[in-house]
Amino acid sequence: MGMINEQSRIEERKLTLTQLELVIKPATIAAGLNRSASTFSLELHRDAWIRSKLSHGPQRPLEAGG
User: Fold this and answer.
1) E-assigned strands of 1-66?
2) Rounded CA gap, 7 and 47, in Å?
3) pTM over 0.70
4) What are the backbone angles phi and psi of residue 61, rounded to the nearest 5°?
5) Angstrom distance (rounded) from CA 56 to CA 1
């Protein structure tokens, strides 16, 4: 039973990271996981997640001077 729980936790983290990279708001991700937005935010801070520099929408590519 422990292996199934750990595997689902790994899959959930992969999904979360993908959604964060797609600039989906953490509160929206938390709602999809049936978690409190504040608890989810605390987990992100604990895991030292850093918001992408391009999180405010499309911008010039960093190669072009950002």
Assistant:
1) none
2) 18
3) no
4) -60, 150
5) 41
Task: Please enumerate in sequence order all residues whose Cβ is within 8 A of that of 54, keeping only pairs 6 or more positions apart, or say none.
Answer: 23
CB 29 within 8 A of CB 12: no
Q: What angle do CA 30, 51, 40 make, to 5 degrees?
A: 20
Instruction: List the structure tokens of 4.
Output: 């199934």
**pLDDT tens by residue, 3-58:** 677 777 888 888 898 998 898 999 999 999 888 999 888 888 888 776 655 445 55
Let me know: does 26 contact 41? Beta carbons within 8 Å. Answer: yes
Indicate left, alpha or beta for 23 from its phi (over 0: left) and psi (-120 to 50: alpha).
left
The amino acid at residue 7 is Q
